[in-house]
C-alpha cells in the first residue's frame, strides 16, 4: 500500500533568459504545493558519498541541482525510481513518506532544497525496516 498523499515527480520552471543570462524564480504556494519554511543546500560532496537514506513522516520538499548533477533514488515502498537532476530549471518534488537517497554527486553539484517545515529530527525515519513498517 502506498501511503496517502505520497507523490514524487519532476517539475519544470520557467526560465527568464536573455543576453544577460538566465533567471528562475520559484514561489512557495504558487509554483509549489507548499509554503517554503526552510531552504538549505548541499555541496562539496565526493562522488562516492551516499547522502539522505531516510524518509520523512511529514515534509514536502523540492530538490534542484542548481549546478552540476546528482542522482536521487526515491522508494515509495513498492517501487524504486531514480531521477537524475542536472538542470537548474527542473526540480524533484517529494511529498509524503518516500525513502530517498542521493548519490553520484558531481564535484560542482549544488543541491538546493526547499522544504515545507523547519528542521525537525523527529520527522526522520532512518531505518529502512521501520519505513517499510509504515507502509504495511
Ligand atoms: P543530514 O540529515 O545528515 O544530511 P543528508 O540527509 O543530506 O545526508 O544533515 C547533516 C547535518 O546538518 C546534521 O547534523 C543535521 C544538520 N541539518 C540541519 O541543522 N538543518 C537542516 O535543515 C538539515 C537538513 C540538516
Q: Which key phrases capture this entry?
A:
136 residues, binds thymidine-5'-diphosphate, 12 strands, mainly beta
Overview of this protein structure:
By secondary structure, this protein is mostly beta strands. It has one helix and twelve strands. It has one helix at 128-135, and strands spanning 7-12, 15-18, 21-24, 38-43, 51-56, 60-67, 70-75, 80-85, 90-95, 99-103, 110-115, 124-125. The strands form three sheets. A five-stranded antiparallel beta sheet has the order 1-9-6-11-4, with no helix packed on it. A five-stranded antiparallel beta sheet has the order 8-7-10-5-12. A two-stranded antiparallel ribbon has the order 2-3. The termini are close together. The chain binds thymidine-5'-diphosphate. Residues 38, 40, 42, 51-52, 119 line the site of thymidine-5'-diphosphate.
The percent range for helix content is under 10%
Low-confidence stretches are: none
Shape: globular
**Average pLDDT score:** 95
β-sheet strand percentage: over 45%
From N to C, what is the helix and strand string? EEEEEEEEEEEEH
Bound molecules: thymidine-5'-diphosphate
